Amino acid sequence: MTAMTHAPEVFRAAVDALRQVRPRPELVLEPVRPPRRLAPWSYALSCEATGPADVVASGRLVLLHDPDGPEPWHGVLRLVGYVTAEIDPELAGDPLLLSVGWSWLTDALEATAAEYTALGGTVTATSSARFGDISGPARTDDLELRASWTPKTPDLRPHGEAFCRVMASVVGLPPVGVTLFGQRHGS
């Protein structure tokens, strides 16, 4: 990618909007090196989230810009989101987990009024068991969400906020302003 000053205006506006996202304190959002071969212009943010009981998730939101507007995109901008987290074994066995994981994204996009088209993706749950002399926990369960969508405008702040909401949902954080019973402090 060449210098941002030479980037197309629509891409610069989209990046500026993503830079305005201010996540809640449990999330750390920072720019990272974007992929180079997916589009002529790209920008990426990484996100680390910590929830109750030290549940941790990591994610990445990538903005792609191709002035030629590839057919499947239905536009010249494309967002790609990726989230992964270790989950509780009981949650891993829930038959609704995959649908709920997808609803975290669609509900977040709706809640932030992020306008989009061409949304698609996958939610994957995996379980791994260690045997023999391999060190580490005997079993781990993980959830992975991968999605991409085309924003209808370069105002990507609502999309960035939606991504942060997804990260918060994955680690089990309550909505902003809501306190879980176990989290209250005595007065």
From TrEMBL:
Q: Which Pfam families match?
A: DUF3000
Q: What is the superkingdom listed in this entry's lineage?
A: Bacteria
**Stored InterPro entries:** DUF3000
Q: What is this protein called?
A: DUF3000 domain-containing protein
Q: Which organism is it from?
A: Thermocrispum agreste
